[in-house]
Here is the input.
Amino acid sequence: MEVDVCPFTSREQYAGVVRYFVQASDAFLYGMGADRAKLPSADEWLRLLLEDHEKPDEQKERVYFAWLYHGTQVGHSSLGNIRAGEDAFIHLHLWVPALRRAGLGTEFFKRSVALSIERFALKRVFCEPRAENLAPNRVLEKAGFTFVRRYRTVPGAINYEQDVNRWVYEGRPR
Ligand SMILES: CC(C)(COP(=O)(O)OP(=O)(O)OC[C@H]1O[C@@H](n2cnc3c(N)ncnc32)[C@H](O)[C@@H]1OP(=O)(O)O)[C@@H](O)C(=O)NCCC(=O)NCCS
Here is the structure.
């Protein structure tokens, strides 16, 4: 299949996530709200990701989904702050610049949301991109998310203080 989304299974997939962030330019990181100074070292980060992968779902800090294009991983989404049966926060990253702006991110993202809802019986999925980061905000709108509010926060451990837009997807009742 041209486009597929599957849960992470291998060390190499996590290494790909670490490379994506650690090898990114400062400008790229800034654009998506991340601060290089806050990134863990590559080795430590990979160790933490692999440790989390081994935990049962209910104890996991995050769950990762691979974005596969013609069988090759070209991005990922991750799900954090998971409250099974309730809600979680999703993230989206198309690693390959040449593949951006062709509709793929939206397609991968929609599938990641569906898999997340199914796996954790979620009623709601939240996403909070940096308000000035146009691409994810547009993807969310196209994927059927509803804009909730804009506010200032430090969204996570690798982020600086910024305005984010909160979006929500209300999963169908099960
Ligand atoms: C966010 C991301 C996954 C979107 O994937 P993508 O394949 O580029 O998105 P799509 O091609 O599906 O585009 C969806 C919409 O966003 C718009 N869009 C995409 N990139 C854009 C950009 N840089 N500026 C403005 N609009 C943009 C597209 O035009 C399209 O809208 P349209 O149909 O009205 O024209 C990808 O751009 C990415 O990984 N960016 C870097 C990481 C990042 O910022 N992640 C978000 C962290 S919160």
